[in-house]
């Protein structure tokens, strides 16, 4: 009898020991999770970085507020979309005008302005807080006198318009748009911003001097073209625009064709990010789910000269 009791107590002790070890493992796991969450929140606190970047001519600097998708990329790589800045500078004229529509925090305008000291770079950025960062980055480069910034959207109308702005805790605030796109989710607010047509905004004396226009407006590129046809006709600039078919899921091929039909005097090529080349493309190739790319529009009359 005594032996059975001792055996039972030993068995009970072993079970309780296993339960204790399991509870201890769970406890340690929860501590790890809690520490990881604390660390994550610490990492989310804004930190400022001053990054120096070498253009094709002179150095410029950017004040970058991390965390942020564009900011963190520049901090790590000291560049942003290098294939795009190379294309812009290849076609830019020394005394030309660069229109940066959807300038974000200003990398491409700063790079172009630093590369071409006699050029003029005009930035458009509707997001109020991104615009403040853009202005800050321009102001810290006191040697660059050839950039001006406008806190307005560009499209096919003048006045006020609804803008879907990503909140401050969003990692990629550059997804903000005039359209309520699929990748905005619920972490955005609606605000009113000013909007202009390029044809009405750009001075007549500048319309014939524009070398390059870059358009990155998160699915609203067609509207920019609609409001810029007179400017395009007078200057015949090189035009670079981003296109993401998932922003036009109802008819992505139709959306791209609508853009191409607006500029029949242009040859449209794909900037191949993988091959680092400019090439022809099929509509079906670039209108499939998940594609995101940049296109370059070259005036047909000058096509052989450029290539």
What can you see in these coordinates?
The protein has helices at 2-44, 69-77, 82-91, 107-115, 128-139, 198-201, 221-226, 229-235, 252-262, 283-286, 303-306, and strands at residues 47-54, 59-66, 97-101, 120-124, 147-150, 153-154, 159-166, 188-196, 210-215, 238-243, 266-272, 277-279, 293-299. The protein is an alpha/beta fold and 307 residues long. The protein has one domain (81-306): Vaccinia Virus protein VP39 (Rossmann fold, 3-Layer(aba) Sandwich), CATH 3.40.50. The strands form 3 sheets. An 8-stranded mixed sheet has the order 5-4-3-9-10-13-11-12, covered by helices on one side. The protein has a 3-stranded mixed sheet with strand order 6-8-7. The protein has a two-stranded antiparallel ribbon with strand order 1-2. It starts with a helix and ends with a helix.
Number of helices: 11
Shape: elongated
CATH topology: Rossmann fold
Query: Helix amount, in percent?
Result: 25-40%
> Could you report the average pLDDT, rounded to the nearest whole number?
88
**CATH level-4 homologous superfamily:** Vaccinia Virus protein VP39
Largest sheet: 8 strands, mixed
Assign the structural class, choosing from mainly alpha, mainly beta, alpha/beta, alpha+beta, or little secondary structure: alpha/beta
Which key terms come to mind for this protein?
307 residues; alpha/beta; Rossmann fold; eight-stranded mixed β-sheet; three-stranded mixed β-sheet; 13 strands; 39% helix
């Amino acid at each position: 009898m005594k032996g059975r009791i001792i055996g039972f107590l030993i068995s009970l002790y072993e079970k309780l020991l296993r339960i204790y070890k399991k509870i201890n493992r769970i406890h340690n796991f929860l501590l790890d999770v809690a520490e990881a969450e604390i660390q994550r929140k610490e990492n989310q606190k804004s930190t400022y970085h001053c990054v120096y970047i070498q253009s094709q001519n002179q150095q410029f600097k950017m004040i970058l507020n991390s965390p942020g998708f564009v900011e963190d990329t520049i901090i790590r790589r000291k560049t942003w979309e290098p294939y795009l800045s190379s294309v812009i500078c290849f076609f830019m004229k020394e005394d030309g005008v660069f229109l940066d529509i959807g300038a974000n925090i200003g990398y491409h305008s700063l790079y172009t302005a630093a590369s071409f000291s006699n050029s003029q770079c005009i930035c458009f950025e509707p997001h109020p807080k991104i615009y403040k960062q853009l202005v800050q980055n321009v102001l810290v480069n006191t040697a660059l006198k050839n950039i001006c910034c406008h806190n307005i959207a560009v499209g096919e109308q003048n006045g006020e318009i609804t803008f879907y702005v990503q909140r401050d805790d969003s990692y990629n605030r550059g997804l903000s748009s005039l359209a309520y796109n699929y990748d905005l989710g619920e972490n955005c607010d609606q605000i009113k911003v000013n909007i202009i047509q390029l044809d009405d905004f750009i001075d007549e004396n500048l319309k014939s001097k524009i070398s390059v226009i870059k358009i990155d407006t998160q699915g609203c590129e067609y509207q920019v073209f609609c409001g810029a046809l007179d400017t395009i006709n007078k200057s015949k600039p090189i035009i670079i625009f981003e296109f993401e078919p998932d922003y036009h899921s109802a008819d992505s091929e139709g959306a791209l064709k609508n853009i191409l039909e607006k500029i029949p005097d242009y040859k449209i090529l794909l900037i191949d990010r993988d091959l680092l080349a400019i090439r022809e493309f099929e509509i079906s190739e670039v209108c499939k789910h998940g594609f995101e790319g940049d296109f370059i529009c070259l005036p047909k009359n000058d096509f052989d000269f450029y290539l």
